[in-house]
Amino acid sequence: MMIQVRVLGVALDAARQHIVLLKPLHEEPGVQRVLPIWIGAQEATSIVIAVAGEQAPRPLTHDLTMTLLDTLHAQIARVEVTRIDEGTFYAELTLTTPAGPRVIDARPSDAVALAVRADAPIFVDEEVLDEAGIPGEIAEGGDDDAAVDEAGMPDEAAAERTDEAAVDEFKRFLDDVDPEDFQG
């Protein structure tokens, strides 16, 4: 079963390696998890720029890819992190094209960078999340889906604060973790 996720953020582990953090959109209360995927510095920069809604001074590889897809009248329909094998994550891009749907093998870092730019949904196989997900204790500090302002409306600022607190707690967790801890 596939679980829809969102990009919680990008962090650095104790070895100063970049990690993209994926958080399920809809999880049962008390079952919160975050999926860390180690990525390269360039992909981390690309994801951070896209999440912030900013543009690099010159097109990055992911920007070029989006331009190529647009030129060919293709769109990213969805991204799926499909499996983990010996500590390596695998992903697929599903494209809609004039010739019909196409599924393309991709590195998760590239797939996520493209999904953020295309505003495409990101999914993770439940088995991957079960195997490599981090327990929700690091995300405690509130449920960002339940954050509301004084008028009872969703409070985006509170949700952002919760996300920042989760990332800060995750950074503390990473001080004691090694990427090899996640290898099968």
TrEMBL record:
Gene3D superfamilies according to UniProt: Bifunctional nuclease domain
Domain BFN residue range list: 2-136
Cited SUPFAM superfamilies: Hypothetical protein TM0160
Pfam family, one: BFN_dom
Superkingdom of this protein's organism: Bacteria
UniProt name for this protein: Bifunctional DNase/RNase
Native species: Agromyces ramosus
